[in-house]
Amino acid sequence: NMPHTLFSVTKSLVSTAVGFAIDEGLFSLDSKILPYFSEYKHPQSDEWDNMTVRSLLTMNSNKEFSFLQDMTADYTEIFMKAPFRKNKGFLYSNNDVHILSALVHKLSGESVVDYLDSRLFKPLGIDKPFWETNQKGECIGGTGAYLKLRDLAKICRCYADGGVYDGKQVI
Q1: Would you say residue 111 has pLDDT above 80?
Q2: Residues 98, 138: contact at Cβ < 8 Å?
Q3: pTM score
């Protein structure tokens, strides 16, 4: 009955929010990231042309990343200023997922927890969970959601059943 931190399971919830946002036409898997965050200073690089929602979902942004960052800071600013890595390809990254959380927040006008409340949590009979936020009010994308075990089980069951819960298509 007690909510627990989900750590990286949070990434699955953000990915679910991204799926809803794509379905609702807010952006696509092939949407480039830079235009959405052009207000931030960033290194000039042709690599921005390859950075899409898909590359963030698959943790292929090729951006430098450290687990020692202050997650309550402006993660988007940190991400945008970070250099690109020389070794390209997959790198497990809280930052890539946080940018997706920030994108959903920016385009929907709702934090990810609020965005998922009516689309996922309420249909599954889950009270809106606590989710850590940064100084901008964005839900921390790589970690930060808290759920009760039975609520997490409902979400996992919905995933396992092709997005159906209690006979209703939720995802």
Answers
A1: yes
A2: yes
A3: 0.96
